[in-house]
UniProtKB/TrEMBL annotation:
InterPro entries: EF-4 (IPR006297), EFTu-like_2 (IPR004161), G_TR_CS (IPR031157), P-loop_NTPase (IPR027417), Small_GTP-bd (IPR005225), T_Tr_GTP-bd_dom (IPR000795), Transl_B-barrel_sf (IPR009000). The lineage of its organism: Bacteria, Pseudomonadati, Pseudomonadota, Gammaproteobacteria, Enterobacterales. This is GTP-binding protein. Gene3D superfamilies: P-loop containing nucleotide triphosphate hydrolases, Translation factors. GO terms for molecular function: GTP binding; GTPase activity; guanosine tetraphosphate binding; ribosome binding. Residues 1-143 form the Tr-type G domain. It comes from Escherichia coli. The keyword Cell division does not apply.
Amino acid sequence: DSMDLERERGITIKAQSVTLDYKASDGETYQLNFIDTPGHVDFSYEVSRSLAACEGALLVVDAGQGVEAQTLANCYTAMEMDLEVVPVLNKIDLPAADPERVAEEIEDIVGIDATDAVRCSAKTGVGVQDVLERLVRDIPPPEGDPEGPLQALIIDSWFDNYLGVVSLIRIKNGTLRKGDKVKVMSTEQTYNADRLGIFTPKQIDRTELKCGEVGWLVCAIKDIHGAPVGDT
């Protein structure tokens, strides 16, 4: 979370992504694209747009508090969109943690098998590698035609005083290269792809984004309405 308001309220407001290369136990290196969606009840549309760009979802549940109402709503949205849902029990380092009870709660309330839910602590790092291994094992690779015409989904957009409108995008088909002409379908406006790249979580410039990748795009759009969330 990079916005002042997000830090102040302790919630995610704008979707954000991070890309990392992970060498799994099978010896292969996988590129993982994470999208941190808003979880708050006020941002359900933003959540659905983020999920539309994903193949799977991590259902992260506090091992002490259990399943919260909004977590449940977002999980059902993911399941309705046929995403592979991977249950994760976080904060197992806390004295109040009761992973067995919470795993049962997930099965009873959500209706997915949580007997082998990954147990981890984001604070201490315990179990984080297990989460990555589970992602590689259970979540399918992105679909799409790398050789097809460019098609990208706008996951979110925000205004930067220096760059103008920055859009978080998922490449559905084809490849987006710096300097390419892009057309926002709902507004019929055409722009040049001036800058693009990924978050690591730092904003890194790249010359292209390939099919299946999630990254950012700047193309001289001055008004946030010029890059509507959920558009192509």
